[in-house]
Amino acid sequence: METQDVFPLLKWFNDQRVLEDLGAEHISFCVSLEEEKAIVERMLRDVNASWFIIVNLEDLEPIGLTGLTNMDDRNASAEIRIIIGEVKDWGKGLGEEAVHLVLGYGFDSRGLHRIWLRVADYNERAVRLYRRCGFVEEGKSRHDHYHKGRWQDAYRMSILESEWRSG
Amino acid sequence: MLAGNLVRLRAPQRADIPMFVKWFNDPETTRYLLRTPPMGMEEEEAWYDSLIGKDMKVFSIETLEGRLVGNVGIIHVDWANRNADIGIIIGEKECWSMGYGTEAITLLLGYMFDELNLERVWLYCDMENLRAQRCYEKCGLRTEGVFRHHRLQAGKFRDDAVMSILKQEWLERKAELSR
After folding, report:
1. pLDDT digits (tens, 9 = 90+) for B123-170
2. Of A11, A15, A112, A120, nearest in space to A68 by CA
3. A3-166: which CATH architecture?
4. Quick check: A165 contacting B, CB < 8 Å?
5. Residue A130 among the catalytic residues
6. Are A158 and A117 spatial neighbours (Cβ–Cβ below 8 Å)?
7. Do residues B164 and B122 make contact, with C-beta atoms less than 8 angstroms apart?
8. Residue B1 is nearest to which of A30, A35, A147, comparing CB atoms?
9. Cβ B31 vs Cβ B91: under 8 Å
10. Residues of A numbered 30-59 whose beta carbons fall under 8 angstroms of chain B's beta carbons: which are they?
């Protein structure tokens, strides 16, 4: 990711359909271009994170954002995040491929042992995708965030390097 | 973006600033405003830049056809006490009394109660600004007191009503609206 990628990010994070199931992650709701720039610069300065723009190979159009954050070198773990911002590209398996690529990067290039994630329990499409990618539910954060007028739960899921290798 | 039937609230953009400056230099528009006009381009740009990374959240109000008519925002969130104050301006005078302000505030209240989980939303309103008071009442706010001589404007100390709406009142109003 580079600072110039702020333009698609701004579009995606202003799309209610994209934000709907993001749970506690939709911090950049309805922000100006200048604020989104500040957010991107902060993301890029974070030495414990690696962010990637997901690009469609057909036309090289940016369609989403993914990456590893909360990188813990000592314990060889990190959190994976992903969002497909182009709604027209939903349901094509692009998110699944992106997750596989990030897992490969984390285990093969960053020497990770464990990759974990948070996902809102009502985001069933995402939960199914993560299961297909080999993630296992390890628990539920009860009342993880407030959304649609009530406290909502979120799953914690993870995949270990050995599971990735044998999968 | 928060969309209603008449207006939507969207992120502000730098291109909106000349309109903001126009509104803040119109004595009729700013008559009851709590901020002190007039404002120049540089001052308004400095204000816009100061929003980055702040709790203060400003939305531009536009009609569904895309005409910029005003702005509305959360001025400060007191997270520990779960309350926040808001402010609004409908700057385009031909757009007064069309229900835009009422819908903009209702959209903002939905965001503040249903997403930010606040307990109380409040604002100050000039006691002589009856049109605004009626609008806020339509949104479910009620006057809970008057701060006498709270503000000096044009050589006169002015009284401000303190108006608020609690979460329970919002839930009741939301149920009413959906009936």
Report:
1. 999 999 999 999 999 999 999 999 999 998 888 999 999 999 999 999
2. A112
3. 3-Layer(aba) Sandwich (3.40)
4. no
5. yes
6. yes
7. yes
8. A30
9. no
10. 30-35, 38
Query: What does the domain layout of chain B look like in residue ranges?
Result: 2-177
Say yes or no: ipTM exceeds 0.85: no
Do A139 and A91 form a contact (C-beta atoms < 8 A)?
Answer: no
For testing the chain A interface, which of B16, B52, B57 should be mutated: the one with the most A CBs within 10 Å?
Answer: B52
Q: Which of residues 139-158 of A touch B (CB under 8 A)?
A: 146-149
Express each pLDDT in B21-70 by its tens digit. Answer: 999 998 888 888 877 777 899 999 999 999 888 878 999 999 999 999 99
What residues contact B36, with CB distance under 8 A and at least 6 apart? B153
Pairwise CB contact (< 8 Å): B49 & A34:
yes
Strands B68-78 and B57-63, sheet pairing: antiparallel
Query: Considering only CB atoms, which residues of chain B are within 8 Å of chain A?
Result: 1-3, 9-14, 48-49, 51-53, 57, 59, 113-117, 171
Q: Name the CATH code of domain B2-177 (choices 1.10.10.10, 3.90.950.10, 3.40.630.30, 2.40.50.140).
A: 3.40.630.30
